[in-house]
UniProtKB/TrEMBL annotation:
Keywords: Germination, Membrane, Transmembrane, Transmembrane helix, Transport. PANTHER family: SPORE GERMINATION PROTEIN A2. It is found in: Membrane. Belongs to the amino acid-polyamine-organocation (APC) superfamily. Spore germination protein (SGP) (TC 2.A.3.9) family. This is Spore germination protein. It comes from Paenibacillus amylolyticus. Pfam families: Spore_permease.
């Protein structure tokens, strides 16, 4: 049985763990993934790359869980020093902190660009970002318990709205645009898997919250549900975008899934157009994703630099604001996202396996 509701012990319930995982994975990439993966695969088979990328993320997540289970009362920043030594551990921790600063900045800037273009045209960027980060600051000060409870509220609303949009979008769907399947073979499909690394980044959250789970033995189940739902959301979004716009048409759109939502019109309903509703839900998702990345960076800084957690939060806030202004336009922002995806592949896929092997070798040698 999945435990749910509020937990007064300070531990995260299974449902809260699943909500954290889903929220951290499903972020900006919901809007951009169809375009990125189609651009890489160069055919309508891009949806297969999304599925394979999700399966690969599950394998990597299983490795991370195995690693964290060897240190059940520690988070990643604490036990990495136990595995490779204090100074190397601090170096690795510092790199992870930089990664999360960039991820949080990427999410923040993406939110600001989309919001200012579609919802708050003419509003200064600093006004949009200031409200966003200060509310997140308050949330991060309460750490994972409050963040998880917020995610537990956001996820079901998001899924319901998402399913509604997908069902309504079926009227613009043309199955023939997906044919023929594997017309260019599997090689382009495997090549497209690389572009899904940012989309499925977030599975590494288990490195930081396993010690906080009420039932850590259910970590695999939590990750399976979280990544599984993300695979369904991303795959259906990619399939419907291809079915509505064709693979060639997607390449001309920056935000394909948002354009799909704008194409949905239903008469005789209180809300005939759904893009504003989607953007509202999407901003909440980005807010939660940003908050989780913000928390992971602040947690790391407090451990690596031996600072109080509150000091780390306040120190990182202006840093992330500055980094978020580095991309000059949407093209540079998307390029920043690609670099973050590659960094995630190195940091949490390759590094987790290496750390697991080292920890097993050290345990056998003692």
């Amino acid at each position: 049985m999945m435990s749910s509701g509020l937990n007064e012990t300070g531990k995260l319930t299974t449902l809260q763990g699943i909500s954290l995982t889903i929220t951290f994975i499903v972020g900006v990439e919901l809007f951009t993934l169809p375009r990125e993966v189609v651009h890489s695969v160069k055919s309508a088979d891009a949806w297969l790359s999304v599925i394979l990328g999700g399966i690969a993320a599950m394998v990597v997540a299983w490795v991370m869980i195995r690693l964290s289970r060897k240190f059940p009362k520690m988070n990643f920043y604490e036990y990495v020093g136990e595995i490779v030594g204090t100074w190397i551990g601090k170096f690795i921790g510092s790199i992870v902190i930089v990664y999360y600063i960039n991820l949080a900045s990427y999410e923040m800037r993406s939110m600001e660009i989309v919001t200012s273009f579609f919802l708050l045209e003419g509003t200064p960027w600093w006004a949009i970002q200031a409200l966003f980060v200060w509310i997140s600051l308050y949330l991060c000060m309460e750490k994972t318990n409050v963040i998880a409870k917020v995610c537990q509220i956001i996820v079901p609303i998001t899924i319901v709205i998402y399913i509604l949009i997908l069902l309504l979008g079926l009227k613009n769907f043309d199955l023939s645009t997906l044919r023929p399947v594997l017309s260019k073979g599997m090689s382009p499909v495997f090549h497209g898997v690389n572009t899904t690394t940012l989309a499925f980044s977030g599975s590494e959250i288990m490195l930081f919250i396993l010690a906080k789970l009420e039932q850590p033995e259910k970590a695999v189940r939590i990750m399976g549900w979280g990544i599984g739902i993300a695979i369904i959301l991303y795959t259906t979004a990619t399939i419907l975008c291809i079915g509505a716009f064709t693979a060639e048409g997607i390449l001309t759109r920056v935000w394909p899934f948002f354009d799909l939502t704008r194409s949905v019109e239903v008469k005789n309903l209180p809300l005939e157009r759904f893009e504003s509703l989607l953007l509202s839900i999407w901003v909440m998702e980005i807010f939660a994703t940003f908050s989780i990345a913000f928390y992971c960076a602040a947690l790391g800084l407090s451990h690596v630099a031996k600072l109080p957690y509150a000091w780390s939060v306040y120190f990182l806030l202006p840093v992330m604001l500055i980094v978020s202004r580095v991309p000059r336009d949407i093209n540079e922002l998307l390029q920043m996202g690609r670099y973050i995806g590659k960094a995630n592949l190195i940091l949490f896929s390759s590094l987790s396996l290496i750390l697991l092997l080292i920890s097993r070798w050290r345990s056998k040698s003692t």
